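Continuing the series of single-chain predictions for the mutant panel. This is the parent chain; the variants come on the following pages.
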Amino acid sequence: MKIKSLLISGFAGLLTLSSCSKFLEEKSQSEVIPKTAIDYRELLIGSGYMDVYQEPNSFIYFMDDDVDFFIERADGQDSPVGQYDAKVDFPYYTWQPRQADRNGVGDLISEDPGSTAYAQYYKWIMGCNAVLDNIDKAIGTDAEKNRVKGEALAVRAYYYFILANMYGEPYNHNPQSLCVPLKLNSSITESQMKQNTVAEVYAQVVADLNEAAALLDPLPIARKDFHINQPAIHMLLSRVYLYMEKYNDVVSETNKAFAQGAMLADLTAMPYANWLTYNNPEVEWLFGGNTQGDQSTYIPAAAFRATFDPADVRITQGILVQSNNGVPLVSKLPTGGQLGQTIRTPEAVLNRAEANVQLGKLSDALKDLNDLRRTRIPGYTDVSISDKAALLLAVREERRKEFCFEGFRWFDLRRYGMPAITHRYQEDLGGPILQFKLAEKDPAYTLPFPSSLLQRNPELKQNPSGTMPDRIGQ
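Parent structure:
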């Protein structure tokens, strides 16, 4: 089948939508048939990899406990309160059941199901599937084809992992609950697809990542080329196993990443603008759009900022309190048309540390914790923590600091047991300050599906979070 037609018809079969490959559009206005493994690798970049212009689930930035609405200034200057952007994002910030359908000023935001985060991820999944269905017939060496196939499997696995943590319940809470449909080929689907369970989606993610590793591990490691590589695959697999609480597997996968050259860097001597770029030798894969919402609207919460060591460069540089107006901003994240996400070595360190705590290997976990802190806090002195619960908390708090505003926290809170969260909201300066509460194990920890998707695919079952009454501030 011609690949352009394949991509369009396959995605149409899944969501009754259409999409086309940027790669193919740029090559020719007519249909193009990739022939070589190199062609398919370009097709994968154009149709399977995330682009720089968007991160479909960046709205989860507004939902966790690292953000707040208020700037601590009595005069109210530079406050987001009353700003249009703050009102637009109100449904996310307050965990409203119709957050996927209307913004905070009443505009419909999901009339076109193709604009939803759900559909964006499936569009890229279809790009991966198109490559996987055809790469074995390509012209090229086995090594060239294995590299393309391994990348496509790994990237597809990443998308399904994200979808599972958006629309399925936490794996360690209810793995048999409904999740999202698994679409594993690019053929036309005439019938609507039914949802798989969380356990089934995770099983596919693990299978894809393990197959990707088996294909790529024998090949030379490529770095700084915007393609997922072997250490990144093993780090991603360690993350999945951590969510599944398979702690021995977590340690095994992180050790493989270190054996392949993953390394920590001294951020105390590195400009913060380089942290999430290939100028940072910790970064194994750079991809995707910015994970942060409007930085002038939501700011790092004061309680969270207070958890940092005052000398920690992640607060003195990564979260920058500007001297001219006192507004705290997340300065480590890129702006404009720059790639904004990474898989990098500190995740391997912290995944392994958390797994070792759970395995009772406290000295190994403590070493990893101290090793990481030494590269973030000038003049750091190693600490000694002998209590298992205290060390687990310290490792998880270090994870929070290291990856704040990079899309980790909301998913981590889910696997930590879905704790209660409170957000303050004030519609306009001078108005009442309302408290909106997310209860422990609240259904909103699993996101609602947009109504437009439910209408297009009746096989999708709305999550309980989408059938709750509106949340009212107190």
